[in-house]
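check these tokens.
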Amino acid sequence: MSRATLDKRPREVAAMFDGVARRYDITNTVLSGGMDRRWRRRTRQCLELQPGQRVLDLAAGTGVSTAELLRSGAVAVGCDFSLGMVRTGHATRGRELVPFVAGDGMHLPFADGVFDAVTISFGLRNIADPSVALAEMARVVRPGGRLVVCEFSRPTFAPFRYIYLNYLMRMLPWIARRVSSNADAYVYLAESIRAWPAQEELAHTIVASGWSRVRYRNLTGGIVALHLAERT
């Protein structure tokens, strides 16, 4: 089994996710205490999708987030660069008909302005250059289209932040060893969460990448933040 490093070489990251694909969904649910379902639901709600609109779900993994978006009546397309994740998604009961496309977030295989909205959940921090990916997302969304980035962030209450960071670096790998198909990968994931910028810094990066009206909403005390934006 492989583990990526924080320089996020695309081939290493893809191979790492291939290795965790089989038990990825159940591991995430256990590690989040079931909160992952709420975070996906809030992401869908913030996109304010209308039936028939087209939405891109980047870094879709096994498509659990894409399936949530389909509940809105929109046409949701999942895109991920891990073929292991895509294959697992296709083989998962209830997701056989979820449309998947294999693609790199920094070089999206879509024409300009073909989507009404785009979202990426817990995947932006795994891309080698998030700014390039955000600009690519802006390229494939029509003017006025919407973006929601759902990502781990910085808890706002200092004592809680201390407890959370200790959980990340100690308990998360321990739990992953008992649940995941590649526990070493979760050491990288914990490190990538701790190294990820706080809410305001990410908001500035989104603005610099071609998006406007950027704002964010903290979930679960800031463990997760939803950054919302519009295509200029």
In short: The mean pLDDT is 92. Strands lie at 54-58, 75-80, 100-102, 115-121, 141-152, 211-219, 224-231. Residues 157 and 204 are 22 Å apart (CA to CA). Residues 158-179 form the longest helix (22 residues).
